[in-house]
Amino acid sequence: MTAEAFASKDWNVVATMRNPEKETDLKTLPNVSVLHLDVQKAETIEAAVSEVIAKFGSIDVLINNAGYGSLGFFEGTPIDEIQRQYDVNVFGVMRVTQVVLPHMRKAKGGTIVNVSSVAGGHTNALGSVYYSSKWALEAWTECLSYELLPLGIQLKLVQPGGFKTDFGSRSLVFSAPPPDVPEYQPMMEKVQKSMVDALLDLPDPNPVVPDAIYLAATEGDPAKLRYPVYVDGDPYGTLYALRKEKGPDAQYQAVLAAQQE
């Protein structure tokens, strides 16, 4: 959706993905190129960026949107899965950004949009791995924004709430609690039910999320870092807003506890 939004406004767009051979719709657009890139493999990043520079000469906007969600009980989550979550959601973004930055410095400008989540602004049970990866992405982006602003390079964070996408079926991993620890079972049932109920009534992300990403990329306001995007009734957006409003931890914890009753 984001690639189409930029292409419709006459941008030259390069969409990257792990399996470009499976993409059909984007390949029909005249000003969209589709390239192979895996954020976990440095050589694919170098190759893709080199091809873009050879073709267009510069990169004006980089949108980092690779990511997936690893949810579940921390005690039952293998350390390999935790490392993979951070490798994709955090280190993958860092790898791509490090390769692109020299070209933006040479051009004396550019914008980097990191697609985070409202999960980067609140917390919840079963989210210790995924949510913390988004908090890490947010902290890194904010720090980097201070380093790069004097160079004419802006950093932006787009924070989508809950929307009806294939995230749940394609980009979600769930780690169950250890089978010999029944103490977790009551919470697992409550949280899973609330998640399922929320997923049944999520809004369509188009055009809200692509519009927010386009605004972040083009608005040019160096003082604005975060672009939260959610609609009324979105349970995840509601938690994000509550976390902002109810600063003291005890108040926020009371809201979460009430939701799980």
TrEMBL record:
Pfam families: adh_short. Gene3D superfamilies: NAD(P)-binding Rossmann-like Domain. This is Short-chain dehydrogenase/reductase. PANTHER family: SHORT CHAIN DEHYDROGENASE, SHORT-CHAIN DEHYDROGENASE_REDUCTASE FAMILY PROTEIN. GO terms for molecular function: oxidoreductase activity. Belongs to the short-chain dehydrogenases/reductases (SDR) family. Keywords: Oxidoreductase. The keyword Nucleotidyltransferase does not apply. It comes from the Eukaryota.
